[in-house]
Structures are given as C-alpha cells and as structure tokens.
Write a structure and sequence with these properties.
Length: about 550
Amino acid sequence: MSRRLMVLGFLLLTTAALSLAVFHAAYRQSLRALVERGEADLSLAADRLTGQLQRYQDLAVLLNAHPSVAAVRFGASGRAEAEELLQWAIDRTGVLNAAVVAPSGRVQAAARPLPDAAWPDYVAGALDRARDGALGTGHGTTADGLRVYVFAAPRFRSQGGVAGILLLWVNVELLEQEWRGDRPAVYFTDAGGDVFISNRSEILGWQRRPDGGLIPGDASAPEMTRRDVAGLDLWRIDWGPYLPRRALHLVRDLPQVDMRAETLVDAAPGRRVALLQAAVAGLVLLVAGGTLAIVTARRRALAQANQLLEQRVEARTIELKRAQDELVQAGKLSALGQMSAGLSHELNQPLMAIGQFAENGALFLAKGKTDRAAQNLERIAELSARMGRIIRNLRAFARQEAEPARRIELGAVLDTALEMTEARIAKEGVTLEVIRPDGPVPARGGEVRLAQVLVNLITNAVDAMAASEPRCLTVTLEGGRAPRIRVADTGPGIASPEKIFDPFYSTKEVGASEGMGLGLSISYGLVQSFGGAIRGRNRAEGGAEFTVELEGIGGAG
C-alpha cells in the first residue's frame, strides 16, 4: 500500500511540475502573440489620431492663406469678412473656434467671442512658436472644462516677418467620439504625464507614475500592481468593467503631436489558452502514468491494459488535433486583423482627389478666385469625412458587422466612384463608356460602402488592362426590381473565377506594390452586408465582367 501511495505521490508531483512548466511556456508564447496584435492596434490608433489632427493642421494653413484673413487689417469691413470666413469654416469642419491674432497677441477677428483674459499657457506657447515663424501647437483645458488641441499658423509679410497668426481650437472630445469604446483600451499622455486623450473616459486626467504606471485620479480607486513576464510589462488592475484586470502595457512615442500612445491589451485570452494547454498536458501525463501503473500492477492483463491505453491516447490525440485546428483558425483571423493595416491602398483615390482639390484651391487663391477656392475646401472636407466613413466600414466588415441599409440613388453613387477614379482612368489611357437610364435608380444599400466597391472594381479593371489593347472600360447601370451595376473590361479575364472572392487570392504579380488579394473579398462582404450580391465572370468576347446586384425599392423600375 505504501509503495502505491509513493508512486501516486510521485505521479501527482510530476504532473503538477510539468503542467506548471507548460503553463509558463504557453503563457509567454500567448503574450508574445498578444503583443504583436496589440502593437498593430496601437499603431492604428496612433495613426488615426495623428491623421485627424493633420486634417485640422492643414485647415489652419489653408485658412491662413485666404485673402479674407490677410484683409482683416483693413478696418471693420475686413474684420467682418474674416469672421464670416472663420464661421463658415468651423460650421463645416467641427472646429471649436478660430481666430486671427496679431503678432502682439491682440485678437483681430474670431469666429466666436473670446474672453478678455490672458492667453492660457498652452495657447501662449503655440503663439510664441508661431511668432518665430513655425507652426505652433498646444493642448489644454478651457475655462468651460473642454479639452482642446490648438494650432497656431503664422502668416508672413512679403518683405519678411510674421504679419499675423491664425489660431484653431480643436475639440478633443469630437476626435474621441469616433473610436470611444473600441478595443483595446488606448490612451495618450502628454509631456507632463497627464492622460489627455483616451477611448476610456474613466482614466482621463490620471497621472503617469515615474515607473510608467498610472495614478488614479480618484484616491479611492484601487492601486495597480506590475510584474515583468518574459520582458513584458504586465499589469493587474481593477479600474472598472471596461478595462482588463490583467493587461499588457505597450507604449509608442508620438513626437509629431508631443504625446505618448499607450495601450492596455487584455491578457485574459492568453492566460485561458495557457491554462487549457497545461490542463491537457497534465491530463495526458496523468492518463499515461495511471495506465503505466495499472499495466505494471496487473501484468496478467497486459493485452487489455494496452488496448485501453491505445484507445485513450487516440481519444486525446483527436482532442489535441481539434484544439490545434481551432488555434490555427484563430491564427488566421488574427493575421487578417493585422493585415488590415495594409488596407490603406483603399484610400488612395480619395487622397489623390484631396491633393488635386488642394492644388486647385491654391491656384484659385493665387488668382483671387475665393469662391472657387471655397468650393475646393468644401470638397476636401467632404472627401475627408468620406475617408473616415470608409475606415469605419472596413472595421465593421472585419467584425462582421454592418450599418443598416437605407434608400440610396445609384446614379449619384456611381458618379462619386467615377469621380474618384477619373484621374487613374485618364492616366492609363482607358476609354470609358457609361451606360445609364435617364431617370434616377433607387436601391437599398450603403452609399459609402457601395462607392468603395465600385472604386475597387474600376481600379481592378484598369489594372487588368495594363498590358492589353484596346483598353475599354464599360460601366452599365440598370434599374428595375433588382438594380444592377456592371463593370466590364477588355483585359485577359479571370484565371480562376471560382476563387476570385477568396481572401488573399490575387491575379497581380508577386511583389507588386498593390494586389494583396483582399479587395474583392472585402467587396464581397460589403455588398452582402446590405443584402446585395456580387458576381464575376469571363465575357465571351474577352475580358472580365463584375456585376453588383442590389435590392430594389418598391415601385422602382
């Protein structure tokens, strides 16, 4: 009996030691995978913030170059004209306030009244930098408790020196609204260590500790503990239901906005995977050890014991194989999430249009055609908003979510897509033919998502005809109970039509700057998200044709 107890004790100790070793190894491996995904998410969040602020910085520079701003020094009429321009700008961009300031700091014109008080330190610092001829920035809290980011753009005299400064106040809360509540938890700390921007409102205003942790703003909030796991910074916190209790702390410096981006990635999934693997390893060891003990104790039943062992090992092998398949699938989904950073080429066309409108606006300003310049500014604002909506739709697609479909006009959506691809079509020497009915074609769908699908189909068609002659692109709009949009080209056609909508399948050359194989897969999901269908086929006369079919509106056609 004592020998059996010793064997049992040795088996239990060995199982516990092996399970603990497996847990630690699997936990470290899972944390490293979470770090890769967290760094990708942190990079996306940082790029999103800097991109949002860059739009307002460009707006400050453009407004400062407007003749109405330069004319503010010509008495009351000049001041009224400048204030009208500033009011027009903030109404269309969501800017909190804008003002024209003399180098001395005196306000010459403002979209909204400013208090008669000394400039706050963050505004004064931005003004000092603008007086030196550089673009000044600053951030702080207004008297009303609003968090703002300030741009100070200098305007120069023709003979040299700063003639005036344009101040722009950006409401930080408006920037946060678009991504508040997203995962993971992300916050941005300034040079003083204050949490100034975050998608978790409960930690706003907290302080960064000297060791890199956070000091809660509420003295009654629980403290945090930190430990190093394989060189990674792991936090244990209890700061509310929307923050992970075990979190990986990742950091990225953002010198362009004088802040530091930090994120708290939930480590619980990695811990669960490690526990599962440790439990499986321990179970396998216990089964093997128990079986060996039974075989040793019962020599006469060796054949029966061996059969039982084989059955159990086979069952455990099947379970491990199933678990491995699930982990492989999870790895594929994680890779797809990380590859979303490469989807920036979907925004190339709006960016090209913004650049063209900006160049045209500058030419119109130089020629004194302010009304035409204002039209270009409006288009820039519209395209910037559209880019934001495209990004939101891409994120919704990745999460298998969709915005509710609504009534749209297909002709207007088609015009938008053609406008965004017009320069590319002309550059490649492609002949465009558009066939459409005279009246409107209503359908049920998503305007931005459908425009994105059409832009992708058109640019794919242009790419496919790069080595073909002639290069003819035909876009056909059909009404009826099931409205359709057909995009046909004269390229080489589709090599494998049955795979054309598979993720990462591409007909473009390996190593090309474009052609990740995600465009048509994403288009497929976007069309399905509002109840439509998309098909691709080879035409009998040569080339490929893609058809987008939508749900019609009652009475259409």
